[in-house]
Amino acid sequence: ETPNPFKCEPGEKYVMNVMVSGVEYWFPVYEMFKQAGQQFGCETAYTGTPEYDVNKQIATFDQALAQKPAGILVHPMNSDPFIEPINRAIEQGTAVVTFAADSPNSKRVSYITSDNNAEGTYAADAVAKAMDGKGEYAVLENPGQDNHDKRVNAFVARMEAKWPDMKLVGRAASNQDPTKAYQAVLSLAQAHPDLGAVFMPEANSAIGAAQAAKEGGGKIRVMLADVNAKILDMIKAGEIFGSVNPDQGMQGYMGFMLLWMAKHPDLIDPMNDAKRSGFNPMSVPFVDNGFSIVSKDNADDFYWDKYLKRRGTKGIEE
Amino acid sequence: MREAGLIVIILALCIAMSFASPHFLTWGNFRAMLMSFSIEGIVVVGMTILLIVGGIDLSVGSVVCFSMVVSGALFLAGFDPWTASLIGIGVSALIGAAMGFFVTVIGLNHFITSLAAMVIVRGMCLVVTKGTPLSLFTLPPAFKAIGQGSFNNIPYVILIFVVVVAIFDFLLRRATAFRKVFYTGSNEKAAQFSGIRTKQVKFWVTVLCSTLAGLAGVIYMARFGAATPTFGAGMELNIIAAAVIGGASLNGGSGTIFGAILGMALLSVVTSSLILLDISVYWQDMIKGCILLAAVSIDHFLHRKKS
Amino acid sequence: MREAGLIVIILALCIAMSFASPHFLTWGNFRAMLMSFSIEGIVVVGMTILLIVGGIDLSVGSVVCFSMVVSGALFLAGFDPWTASLIGIGVSALIGAAMGFFVTVIGLNHFITSLAAMVIVRGMCLVVTKGTPLSLFTLPPAFKAIGQGSFNNIPYVILIFVVVVAIFDFLLRRATAFRKVFYTGSNEKAAQFSGIRTKQVKFWVTVLCSTLAGLAGVIYMARFGAATPTFGAGMELNIIAAAVIGGASLNGGSGTIFGAILGMALLSVVTSSLILLDISVYWQDMIKGCILLAAVSIDHFLHRKKS
Amino acid sequence: MIQAPILEIRGLSKAFGPVKALSDVQFELRRGEIHALCGENGAGKSTLMNMIAGVLQPDEGDILIDGQAVSIHSPATAQRLGVALVHQEIALCQDATVAENIYMAAINSRRAPLMNFQKLYADAQKVMNLLAPIPVRTRVADLSISNQQLVEIAKALTLDCKVLMLDEPTAALTEGEAKRLFSIVRGLRERGISVAYISHRMAEIFSLCDRVTVFRDGRYVATDPIAAVSPDDIVRKMVGREITQLYPDKLAPKEPGHLILSVEGLSDGRRFADVDLQLRAGEILGIGGLIGAGRSEIAQTICGLRPMASGTVALDGKRLRLRGYGDAVKAGLVYLSEDRKGSGVFLDLPIAANISALDLGRVTGPLGLLDRKAEDRQARELTGRLGVRMAGIEAAVSTLSGGNQQKVAIAKQLSVDPKVIIMDEPTRGIDVGAKVEIHRLLRQLAGSGVGVVVISSELPELIGLCDRVMVVHEGRIAGELAASELGEEAIIMLASGVQDSSNQRQAENVV
Ligand SMILES: Nc1ncnc2c1ncn2[C@@H]1O[C@H](COP(=O)(O)OP(=O)(O)OP(=O)(O)O)[C@@H](O)[C@H]1O
Ligand SMILES: Nc1ncnc2c1ncn2[C@@H]1O[C@H](COP(=O)(O)OP(=O)(O)OP(=O)(O)O)[C@@H](O)[C@H]1O
Ligand SMILES: [Mg+2]
Ligand SMILES: [Mg+2]
């Protein structure tokens, strides 16, 4: 009988690191990261800075690194600033996997994300279909945040390519601020009485945008990416048209697996040049964790607090 | 009068816009603009009075959010929304009192005290919500009406805003108690030598500013039917900017509510115009900043000529 | 001396932390803390001098970013990185000069001018980058070394920071030219009566602050090998807080570089401690704010007792 | 051959909006003379000085220096031309040391890249000691207002100038410091420096100056050699009428009424100790002493403006327990600050709002709203009584001349019908005519049963006005002089601690 190889050494610790650590997008990611860790008998920790500041995030990354963990699952706020810290981590023997945002030029072993382009594309199809391929739409943006920009660009590109009668009538920056989104949608609705849909790449703006749409008589379909309890309620009430939501759980679970594998390359005897070249045989360059379409019908399954209650876990606090 | 210059500038912008976009001079757009700044306008009132007394409050955004979050959490815990809101506003007042304590008793300045409060209160929002927006979908319609309903096609939000502004504008011009605010801000020592308890004055104005922020938070809750832990971040700069554009001095002693509201209106007209003109998002910030700078310069120039 | 109180507080925190976490007193952690504030520390130097003259600059975060973005874009357009950086710093100085113009010639105040500049310059970052980060992976190693290399295991970044701080601390205490900064900030009229051209002084200090922000931007670029259009947003409050904790007055006339750096260090130690102690993120902000408030109060108390 | 005057003003006019501050005035300053400039409050004296010093720009007219027409855009230009001004209002950098303030102009113009603080402190201390031994490493903010005035003067003495203009330098100084200043100014004259000297104290003008120019209502009246005129002549030219009696009649010796204010064993634990003071209805009590003796501190402590360490204060026989100055005002005890600009007036607020500040209750209608009409009425009445020259009661106090600002500060105290009024340097910067009015007013108040205490550094005022004078020396009452014993010698002896042997011993112990 061989001992179970899928088990951590005592003290083997895996860390997740993010910026704006207080917001809920990360919680399901960490939840599954933690579940995987527990199944392997490993320690896990959730770290990051509460602020939206790459400099501060790197400081927390460095501090986590100073404790020599086995691996770090990081969401690099900006890609290139993380090259040097990530490479330093790899050098000291800490495995690094990026999630939801990448640092492609670093030596991180894997990158796991949902496909932002696919999300934008899908959202565009859903909106256009509901409008019979004809009408006016607008987008709210958060210029400068990479994954958000990708979703918006894919949305617009898809409309142009596949839905020629869908007309883009306005772009406004809402910067994840519900009041700004509210004002922007009200103004857009004034300028374009026939506005039929508005897309935004995140959930914060959607609260304001949906309220404005509602006050405008409910003709405007609000489409977004990501969800939270409020958004789900509004989807169920028909005040929000729908959302594309990355599968955060898979992101966390697979993120852990990727780290663990990268940390234990000796589990396999590679049938390639890995040993000769020093390449990590257990590295998987890219994983797509997929996304879900949230609509009236399935919204109930996405509530985070209900999940926590059902599972009886303390979320990021353990 | 400072206000005259601002009115001229705002009107000029509106006229220019009415040529550029047929939608600009409509009640719908006007209503949209008013709606977009009327809740923030309530916070501006408090900030202006605080600036007059020589203080500043960087924590207003956090306090707006905390009031929202506390009221929301209480509602979800079974309180009726009106009681919950009153408690939310009360808690905001307490935060103001705590800041007032640090300023008047310990002797810290308003800037650093309210900066710390901004961080602490934002943290409390996270603690209460555990980072997830509270969905207050079940708020009774009567309560939601505060934020979403209207009377004769005039939204209650705008009515509340107008009432608050009118009351405080009147009080600030006419009430004896508020005169002391000017004395204290103009020359604190001379105010003390006139028998005014300047610490008390500063304390209560600090409390007032937070209380109005709390009120705004509750109205936001009624409007959005949600309480988001990140709500209002960065709001303080916009609000201070409005008050300063409207003639409030950062050194205390001068400012009017009406002016500050005009400042807010100017910012709102500019933002709204850029969207109506369909300016590229990459250029919006830059143009907005330039218009702001130009407006303030022109206003300054008009003002200087007169005096 | 104001600084003594801060040193005591920082040391007390460090000692407490070294018991609480074995990782605290390691070179790795210390290096991480120093690295995290040394580039921002360069901006703090400029801000402190500007506060002393009675000004304030809300645009530093945007200027740091713009310097980064301009240098990066020029490098991608084929300039060698050193020239590109010099141009980036030069452009930052020009932004400072523009602000100085509005303050001294037009007569606006620093707050509103730099607020407008903050918005405008951030907009320019978006315009230059079209919203996407510039990847500067191809920067030559000799240039990247500024931000990533080290000498005897001491990162160059830290060395540069120490040199800049030492130079300006010395100049501010001893140079005749910088004494005028104090006089202007303390009582502009009195300074004018002594023949000091206070407008010139204010102008050049404004330029200096932006130039140092530009320098910081270039170093950040070397460190990160990237130029991100959203970089540095919100940085200004942190920087002003550091200077004020370190004893700079928002009314001008007082402040020291050394104190401001200690203020920065205090903020950094607190942040770092919370992470090492593995405090729940929900509570981090709140505890951080409370420690900040307590530290400032204690410092104020120590200071008041002495004087 | 007659040399061109060093400074000549021709046809100069200046208006502030509708207010004509100066119309078509002339002025001539010869080499090596001390030239007095006289005029009522608001006559335009400071405005003229400010234009010569480059602080203000004239609307029309010429300024000639050494016979050359010059335009002086800024204080820096004035400095280059060798013109220096000591401003009527103290303008010092509060956060900087005394030494740096004294040598600010030199530091500004010198090329040395680095400061030499050792030399700076040594040089500054030398200059400062000429006037008073104020330690030059102190921050100006930590000095009393009269010491700040001394620093302001010391600053002027270091300037390398041809023309020195002093705008009421002695307004808050006592005899001793003033005399020291005069000998320094005479020394400057010996060195060929020309001095323009503004003061409302006739005695000074006659002992110091060579010629005198009088302005009235912003117009030039006359210039005379001092030997050719009498004080009465000057006053007549200034005011346009005769002033017959400088001081009102004193109280008959046995008249004093009941005890209004009684202070016993008052100490603040730092600056003064064991102060006893009795004030009877109807009398005017003077308090004299040197700068820094602690007179202002005693008065402020009585009124609850500073914390007291021990002692009692009783008003009308009832012991007062003051939580702050507000309580004192309510009880009818008011204090006029010596620091007009710092704590006397709100410069940016209208005159009417300044006057009503002490007791807003008087101008408050029902519902706690301000009664603007009552406020205006009050302001009009009091400014009329004190003869404030102003554009209107809505004008900001900063637009008034120094003396008129002082009148506003006094009007504020009078607005509340106090029981006891303590005035710290009440006539600081007030012209001769108005001074007579204010003295008469104080006497009237006393006559109507109000207790009046006057702290003054001007000996003739103490002697001429008061029924009784208490003299303070280093925080203790050195003695008291009845009306019949009053005289400059007697006061100075007590003030300097020469007479009181117990105090002298104490002083030695301290040293
Ligand atoms: N900034 C100003 N705005 C409006 N009026 C002013 C201003 N400065 C001075 N004045 C007016 O100009 C006139 C002359 O004032 P000035 O200060 O020269 O008088 P002065 O002779 O120095 O009086 P004093 O003896 O009281 O110091 C006054 O009526 C005053 O109100
Ligand atoms: N850079 C400086 N650092 C310190 N003190 C200064 C500086 N510049 C001027 N001062 C002070 O101002 C005073 C007057 O300066 P000024 O150059 O007129 O003096 P001085 O007596 O001619 O001195 P010296 O010829 O020895 O330099 C000096 O006594 C000096 O103390
Ligand atoms: Mg004068
Ligand atoms: Mg005194």
Describe this structure in words.
The complex is a heterotetramer, with 1 copy of chain A (318 residues), 2 copies of chain B (307 residues) and 1 copy of chain D (511 residues). Chain A is an alpha/beta fold and 318 residues long. Chain A contains 11 helices and 12 strands. The radius of gyration of chain A is 21 Å and the shape is elongated. Chain A starts with 12 loop residues before the first strand and ends in a 7-residue tail after the last helix. The model of chain A has no long low-confidence stretch (mean pLDDT 90). Chain B has helices at 2-20, 27-52, 60-76, 81-106, 110-129, 141-148, 156-174, 176-186, 188-192, 198-224, 235-245, 257-276, 281-306, and strands at 134-135, 150-151, 154-155, 226-227. Chain B is mainly α and 307 residues long. By secondary structure, chain D is an alpha/beta fold. Chain D contains 19 helices and 20 strands. Chain D has a 6-stranded mixed sheet with strand order 6-7-8-3-9-10, with helices on both faces. The longest helix of chain D is centred in the middle third of the chain and has 16 residues, at 175-190. Chains B and C meet through helix 5, helix 11 and helix 13 of B and helix 5, helix 11 and helix 13 of C. The structure holds adenosine-5'-triphosphate (2 copies) and magnesium ion (2 copies). One adenosine-5'-triphosphate binds at residues 16, 19, 21, 39, 41-47, 88, 389, 399-404, 429, 431 of chain D. One adenosine-5'-triphosphate is lined by residues 103, 106-107, 110, 112, 115-116, 119-120, 123 of chain D.
Structural class of chain A comes to alpha/beta
Please report which band the strand proportion of chain D falls in: under 5%, 5-15%, 15-25%, 25-35%, 35-45% or over 45%. Answer: 15-25%
What form of chain D results from the Cα inertia axes? globular
Oligomeric form: heterotetramer
Transmembrane segments (chains B, C): 30-53, 60-79, 85-108, 115-134, 154-172, 203-224, 257-276
Protein name (chains B, C): ABC transporter permease
Subcellular location (chains B, C): Cell membrane
Keywords (chains B, C): Cell membrane, Membrane, Transmembrane, Transmembrane helix
